[in-house]
Each structure stands twice: as C-alpha cells, then as structure tokens.
Fold each of these.
Amino acid sequence: MTTGVTSTSYDYNAAMDNIQAEVEAYCEANGINAEDYLSNLDGNLTINVFDNPTLAAYFQLAYMQLVEMLYPEVINSIEAEVGAVDFATLYESCDEEFNAFITSIIQDDPELMALFSMQAGSSDSEIQALYAELAKMISSSDSEADDMGATFYTDQARDSAAGTSHEDFVNWLADQEDMFTSVEMSILDQLSTYDQAILEIKAALENDDISAEEFQAEMENIMFGRETLMTMLQQVTAQKSQFFEMISEMMDKATEMQNSIINNMRSY
C-alpha cells in the first residue's frame, strides 16, 4: 500500500516556514528562547540520523510529528484504511520520495528531534543526552569535512606545483598548512570531549548521582581544562595567521622586486 502527496507539493521552503511557525508558537507558550532552535533551522548541515540506533526513537517521533504538521492528509488517509497509525505503518505506506523528503528535513535540522521530544514530555536529562549525541555527530561531521577540505586544498597545491621550480616551496608551505590544521582539529576534538563531560555531569546532578559539592569540583576541573584548550586554540590560530601573513608579505616583496628588475631591463 502506498499513499502520500504528489511530488509537486514537496516544497522545502514552505515546509521550513511552517516548522518555524510551529517552533515559535511552542517556545512562546513555554517561555523558551526560540532562537536556540531557529538559529540552526535549515542550516544546510546534514548528518545521517536515519539508521542510528541511539536516535531511532527520536527520529521516528520527529518523522510522525512532521508528517502530522505538514501533510496531515497522509495520516488521515492511512488511518481511514487501517485504523491507528504508528511509525512503521506510516513509513511503509508512503512512497520513497515522500519518505526521503521528510527524512531530509530531519537530517538537515536534527535539533528538531530534541524539540519534538521536549513537546512529548521527555525529561531534561534525556533531552541533554540527545543534544550530546547530536553535538558529537555534528562535531564529527564538521571535523571530517574540514579534514577533507584541507587535504584537498593542500594536495591540489602539491599536484599543481609538481615538476615546476616552485615544487619544493609549495610542498613545504602545504606541510605547514597541514600541521596547523592537524593541531586545530586535535584541540577541537578535545573541546568536544569536555562539552560532552559537562552534559554528563549535569545529568548526574539532576539524577542525584553526585552531590552538589562533587558537581562543583568536577565543573571547576572541566572548565579549567576547557579554558586552557581555548587559549591554546587562540594561540595556534594567531600563529597560523601570522605565519601566512609573513609568507604573503615575502611573496609580495619578491613580486615587486621581479617587476622592478623587469622594468629596469626594459628601460635599456
């Protein structure tokens, strides 16, 4: 059995507008800062949450909520045929294009899973755990994208310079870029670990697994480590900027000297 809406009615922008209105209404009614959710809405960042066992229940809830919000006629049609509609029935009854469209909305804006879970009455600790998992996935996605971009850039530079008189210099410059990028990625990974620890210790306090004194001591240790890493990241970023500014100035001066020599030769 397949039911659904025609492909011509799959309007991503219209869907985002409807979702934004829903988010604003919910946040206003519950005294929540809507910007926390809306800032990332349709942010063009996609992570794969469809087949993640940890997120399965949240994904299914978000899928059901989005279909009910955006295309209620789909659920009504299936309900009229088979009675009560659960995720499995709904997903199997809809065509692949429709399922892919709804899934893409969730994967573009995975924070919606947290919002719908909050609406469903999930506990604060459960929501925090969900945010921690999403943050870890997004951080991993960002790191992979950054690593791929940096590798592509430096490898492309090496390939372009191969066999030319500038090959040694370009290879050395690319090595410096890779070194700085590697250090930055390492620090960002460690910062992500500290952020995860903060969420876990907050959840432990809420569940009475640790005392307020233990929480305070752990938080002080975590924040000290995090601040140290932030200082290191700022220093590495500054060093990287200074290094490439120096290289740029050297190349500009070399170009000026070459042009001066050429102009002098032309004058004879």
Amino acid sequence: MLTMPKVILRNLNDDYYEENIVTDTMNNNCLFYTDRDKNNVEVCIFDDGICLFKEAKDYMLELHLRNKTYAKITSSEGIVEIDVKMVEFSKNNVNILVHYLIDGEDKVIEIKN
C-alpha cells in the first residue's frame, strides 16, 4: 500500500503541532493538502529550500524559504512582507526539514515520506 507524505508544522516556542496528510502531488516537487482549518496549502520543494502557499478565506500566505527568505501576507487590507531567517535546510531521499525564524518565533516544517 502506497502512503502519502506528511507535512508537519511545529512551533518550537510553544506546543503547537500540526500534522497534515498530502492529498495530491505534482511531479513529486509540489505537494497539496488541506490544513486543519480547511485551507488549501501547496508546498513546492526545490534543491535549496521550499515555498509554501496557503489560501485561506480572508488572506493568502506565501512563505519563501530558499535563497531569498520572506513571508508575504495578502488580504483585502493590503500586503505585509516579513523577513524570515532560515536556520537549517536538510533534504535526503525521503525527508525534508526546514528550521526558520519568523517574527521572534522558532518554527520547523518537516516533510516525511
């Protein structure tokens, strides 16, 4: 039986933990899932990092964790861009880990196949 990858989001400053099962893939480089709040999320994997795109009811989030790191939030009220610092990016054949700092919070995204 083929199992779909999991995308795990953690905040190391508190006990936030969210595990999502990937529902669709495109060329093994882009993963799609619906998060716990029923938002559509796409994660694209590159050799130098990842990009995450989240479409919520009242905003869009772009999280770029590659050579240029930033988060961009677009809503009806405008656009906010926040600097992000990537602490660690590791990728092997089956798992990916991205550790980053955003607005004083220590966060991790893991993709496990």
